[in-house]
Amino acid sequence: MAVLTLDTATNVAAVAVGAGATPLASMASMVPRGHSRVLQPAIAAVLETASLQPTQLTQIVVGIGPGSYTGVRLGVATAKAMASALTIPLVSVSTLLGMAESAVPYEAGGVIALPLLYARRKRAYGALYRKVGRRWEALLPPQVRPVSEWGDAMQQRRGDARMAVIVHDFEPKHKVLEDLPATGETRVHLSEVAPDLAPALLRLFHHQPLPSASGTDIHTVVPDYALPVEAEVRLAEKEREGQ
Amino acid sequence: MNVLGIETSCDETAAAVVVDGRTIASQIIASQIHTHERFGGVVPEVASRKHVETVTWVVDQALTEAGMTWKELDGIAVTCGPGLLGALLVGVSAAKGYALATGLPLVGVHHIAGHVAAACLNTDLQFPALALVVSGGHTEILVVDEQFRFSKLGGTKDDAAGEAYDKVARLVGLSYPGGPKVDRLAAVGNPEAYAFPRSLIEEDSYDFSFSGLKSAVANELTKRRNRGEEIVVEDVCASFQQAVVEVLVEKTARAVKHTGYQTVVVAGGVAANQGLRRALSERANADGFAVHFPPLQLCTDNAAMIAAAGTFLLRAGVRHNLWLNAHATFSLSDWQAGKV
Ligand SMILES: [Zn+2]
After folding, report:
1. What is the Cα–Cα distance from A204 to A77, expressed in whole angstroms?
2. What predicted TM-score, i.e. pTM, was given to this entire model?
């Protein structure tokens, strides 16, 4: 078994390859707008480091967002092409779950994690997960909410969790970190866990049930955009006004 | 030599397999035109999303229809610019994924080079030749040498010819995409009805300008509407088309005379324009040069033209590695210099 994992849905372009839950080789790049060039050379490099031929791959795991950042499409298009040419299954995983796993990489006895990706206008793509042992369960599935609401959402569902972790990609210029009420949780920036993002997908592949597509079903794999295209929103508004 | 072509530069997701740069073994085009129609134009984000949904499917269909597996291919060619960046990136990423998985040679094709290569499909046309490239994004006169290398004689200073068609279509109330509708209406209109300017026709260059013409049409329409005069849309279309075609034909004929090349290849979406086909063929007959129009279905964006161009490049020894990127604006010279 040789599994390739990749995620380009955030500022991080992450690639790993492994035979088991531990990677043989991995790579993460944070070059702004660099994903389109670097992704495939990075895949070739980790395969070479692991002394693997592409044809030896048995599965590909791809982070599908959420987000409308162009990067998510590069990763999904590349993964779909590779899986379909190699005729191997393509496994999809939420980038948010990957962020949670990279922030809580150990066996946990009840930890909740809130991964957040900035979605402009003081909103964030987020999801709430609880980890018991090696497995995550979703308390809130991926969705878009104002950043100010995410903190409360976590508090309400915290239950008896011993620890709470927020992992986010917020920049100072977004001015939203202060919208998150401080409730004693651990805060981690995505850049700190970036090197573990692709290895995290590898662990998820081994410990978590994830949707897998084979054969012609590979064509149907698409990113999770979570938000409609702005032009569609405007068109719908116009149509409503016209009625 | 069997080459797979992939094209996603705008609103069509296309894949094709071409044999020896001449014969189309398969050609699949998934058009998004109906998706974009309701927006009145191409929405880049929508186009990119559609490409991700469709790109691997069209490639699979192209291989199946050609009756080939990856093992029977000799290379992968993909449009790497110019075009909508998010749209191009999907095709380039998929092509790099395929190249990585199969080990096949990869070549990034300039969209215009693809349009020019379309003229070779199903023919025995040989370069060198002159190319008149006319589309929604381009209006250029190029020299294409034996090695399929390009040098530009001139191009538009503002709007592309196809862009002017779409703008005029909107002015007379024709729905998107309006260019072909203008051509159809022009066929039954009076080209002498309105006196629109022939921009840069006197100038001793191969450059074009169409924004002034578009403004002239807008002004004329406003003037007549204000006077309460009836506007005959067919006549507006015919007079506008005459103004565009006259300039295109004159500059092309001049390029033939000055360079000595006796073959002209017409490429791009506007190569389907009946008015241009008729006028340029007449001029070619009168002046004694040869003019090649690709069949109508190969004038619009497709992947067979990318595969054909890719074949000529691979034969000339051009290869690109996995660092290949997509470029929204991209000059032919940068592309040829390997700045991909
Ligand atoms: Zn085109």
Report:
1. 21
2. 0.92
Per-residue pLDDT tens over the stretch B143-180: 999 999 999 999 999 999 998 999 999 999 998 778 89
């001029």: which residue's tokens?
Answer: B283
Residue A230 forms contact with B (CB below 8 Å):
yes
Residues 6+ apart with CB under 8 A from A224: A64, A65, A66, A94, A142
Domains B2-117+298-336 and B127-294 share a fold: yes
How many C-beta atoms lie closer than 10 Å to residue A121's C-beta?
10
Asked whether the beta carbons of residue B89 and residue A70 sit closer than 8 angstroms, the reply is: yes
Q: Which CATH number fits domain B2-117+298-336: 3.30.70.3340, 3.30.40.10, 3.30.420.40, 3.40.50.620?
A: 3.30.420.40
Helix (H, G, I), strand (E, B) or coil at B130: strand
- What is the value of ipTM here, to two decimals? 0.96
Asked if the C-beta of B53 comes within 8 angstroms of chain A's C-beta atoms, the answer is yes
Distance of residue B83 Cα from the nearest chain A Cα, in angstroms: 15
Report the separation in Å between the CA atom of B112 and the middle of ligand 1, taken as the mean of its atom positions.
Answer: 7
Cβ-defined contact of A70 to B100 (cutoff 8 Å): no
pLDDT recorded at residue A188: 95
CA A28 to chain centre: 13
What are the structural domain ranges in chain B?
2-117+298-336, 127-294
Using the Cβ of B21 and the Cβ atoms of chain A, whether some distance falls under 8 Å is answered with: no
CATH architecture of B127-294: 2-Layer Sandwich (3.30)
